[in-house]
Amino acid sequence: MSSLLLDIHGLRHTFPKADGGDLLVLDGIELEVTQGQIVGLLGRTGSGKSTLLRLIAGLAQPSDGSVTYLGQPVLGPAPGIAMVFQGFALFPWLTVLENVQLGLEALGLPDPEIRKRALAAIDLIGLDGYESAYPRELSGGMRQRVGFARALVVHPNILLMDEPFSALDVLTAETLRTDFLELWGDGKLPIKGVILVTHNIEEAVLMCDRILLFSNNPGRIIREIGVDLPQPRNRLDPPFRELVEKIYVAMTARTPNAPAGRQITINTVLPRVSANLFSGLIETLAAAPYNGKADLPVLADELHMEVDELFPVAEAMQMFHFAEVEGGDIKLTDIGKQFAELGTDDRKKLFQKQLLAYIPLATHIRRVLQERANHVAPKSRFLDELEDHMSTEDAEHTLRAVTAWGRYAEAFAYDDDTGMFSLENPS
Amino acid sequence: MRVFVPISVGGWDRLFSRWDILAVLLILGLLVFLGEASRHLFEPLAELQRTPPSLDPANLPEYAARTTLRMLVAMALSLLFTFTYATLAAKNKQAERILVPLLDILQSVPILGFISVTVVFFMALAPGRVLGAEFAAIFAIFTSQAWNMAFSFYQSLRTVPTELIEASRNFRLSPWMSFWRVDVPFAMPQLIWNMMMSMSGSWFFVVASEAISVGNTTVTLPGVGSYIALAIEQQNLRAVGWAIGAMLVVILVYDQILFRPLVAWADRFRYEQEPGAVVPRSWVLDILRRSRIVDRTMRPFAALWRRLLLPRHPDNVEAVRRAPRTRPGWITFQLGLIVFALTAFALWQTLRFFTESITLADLGTVLLLGLATLLRVVVLIALATVVWVPIGVWVGTRPHAAVVVQPIAQFLAAFPANVLFPIVVSGIVAWQLDPNIWLSPLMILGTQWYILFNVIAGAAAIPNELRAVGANLRVRGWLWWRRIALPAVLPYYVTGAITASGGSWNASIVAEVASWGDQHLQADGLGAYIARQTDAGDFHRIVLGIAVMSLYVVVINRLFWRPLYGYAERKFRLD
Known about the structure:
The complex is a heterodimer of chains A (427) and B (575). Helices cover 43% and strands 20% of the residues of chain A.
């Protein structure tokens, strides 16, 4: 028991919806973190992993279930759990030193002690010489180092990291990861366990000992994958690549069942993917070297897209029956291949055909417009309908997605000034 | 919420430039000129058309309409002023150097002082007719609206993105066209926000300008302001209540049918491409947009407007190709000469005007009275700060509370507090309190809300992540206020406090002297001095009082607010 840092049991979390109902964001979460582990939470935006991190930090309370830290329930911000933020979250009016000292001041330590420990943390994290600088004078990488120093200085048992490298450029992020892993490996960090939220699959494989895969809407842990590769890990090692591939397969595993399991209805949340992105990806896939079929990790690497960006496009292409996603691969259908061959006008026609055939919301909007005498209908009419089944934000996004598609397909028009859908394009 | 700083803070590092001094002199010269002119034109108005105002509430709709009309006419004039003055300042480097400081000084002149000096002048323009009095009232309202609008427009024009300017050059838009197609649309959201602020602010002065007497000249224009003045004279609290009710209705009505549609409409001009969190909507605008009749009626006007915007020489390359001209030396010299001559003339006029009847003792007295008013302003702002900053932070960090409180605070800032004076004054009379102390709070009654709603906005703007850090590190109590809350709201607080302090100076002219029926209360201060001299019609001393008050305001802005704002902006801005 002594090595058990954190124990999450039967955790469930909901957000209130505009219409008074509850939106389930996390469901049935079971998680144990033992000493000496880096645990990765991997999933797409909206999988509730950042919310889970905040629940662990005690910044919010779960609707149901328990979070236990060192045998004690977490009922508020707990001492010994520190957090590193995606946007750094440094106080612009405090110097590097003052930012780092803040947590120690809150502990009520004597001044000399505060100073000593802050300087030690600054030293450890490689910020020497920047003590009197303000955050705005620092580069992104240096700012995040301050974020790390500030979290480490309070000597937490658990370090929570919320996509800490995603706001940094590729090279800087890699340097920071390597530095962190080195300090962690050498046991120089005053922490016993790490929980890392990320949507970058390679980052998770590079850093974590265990990876938990999250599903979307609501967030559930769908799979746990252990990583036994020795540190330092090499991204080009075949076992490393295999693991990345395995995660891609696991993360796309749900989608083949989608047509059967999750039928697309009027109320399906639609990904906001522009028609240009569609065309671009279809063309890329149709051309050499892919010739209609690509390995998702390879494609992601080639196009510099992260899971968060690539998956919605793949999902949308699948909805339109332009492509199939299975086993970490994406494969163009015959219609997708045909689309790639066509010119602009014919593409629009094909797009319209697919849109009205497979996206029920688009069909619905068009039918309503046709049925009405003046062929117009206000946006609010459809928005209200959607909001009965999803969050306000999702409803807005879904309607925007279908509006953009409808415009490209010339299936219907929308005037943002009046907030009206219509059948006719302005002449 | 957008925040507007009511003084120029661009060059906060320099306290005064010679252009400031020039601006002060020119305005003084103008005031002196108006005072001079009105003194000579001064004659008893034999037949001032007087419909005896009555306290019958049935008259209030008409009074309210006339008051609102005055404000709208003034608003139109302010827009005209904004488009010309600010454009000139933004487009012409030579003009900019004098126009910007001039505007800054103009903002510091107490508006009620403007009324005192100009009312006789305007009355003299149309002797014996209400028209002159209307001119005077409208001019007073104009002075309360125009400056900050011009200032915001100037700042917007200065920040039009280079890409937009280059695009308009590339498409060879004429200056006229690019002004309406690029400059005005870009400045529109900020300008409309300032128009709303101006409209709110001008209520205060409309109330004061409708019933005023300078020496023997008495202006009583039918309107809400004169209605209230009469109610005070007759000690009729019920009538005051009616007037307040009428004003509430008017404010709500024009907010709904004028400003909300404007804000919703101007949303399209926001330059930031990312979709805003909340798109402002207005039912009036929705109706107008969806109406076919409106569409059809407006079409010819729209066509006419487009034709007006056509470039006049579309194919004339010469007209468009404008090499960066170097202004010939002799033109600069001439300009310099004109400015110099004007300044010398203003200086001479001013000296002559003051030496005529004002002694050094007068000046000393006025300066001392100014100190008394300064003391009041400082104490009141400090009190308001102590009260409203914690409350504002508390509200701002709780979204649910902010949604309720923020509109109320903004409304209270818009509400002309002088309407409430009689209620307070009747209380002071009833309990026989010391006017030197108890009249003071009136100065900040209407302006303290600027502090509150700016602080709320500031606290609400603290990013969630920063708040989460505070909670995660368990920063609490005084440490939380010192390290997180107070620094985060400081830039917003300063913005609010600048407005509040400027407004308090302005209000002192009506707050330090108050009456309830035949009871007259007076506190010692510069505001009371100006009010007294206005009553007596002593133009030399009115101008002296105004000049000294402007001096106090300008000096405090430069010595205190500007550096503080610069510091807050530099150090505490969240980016």
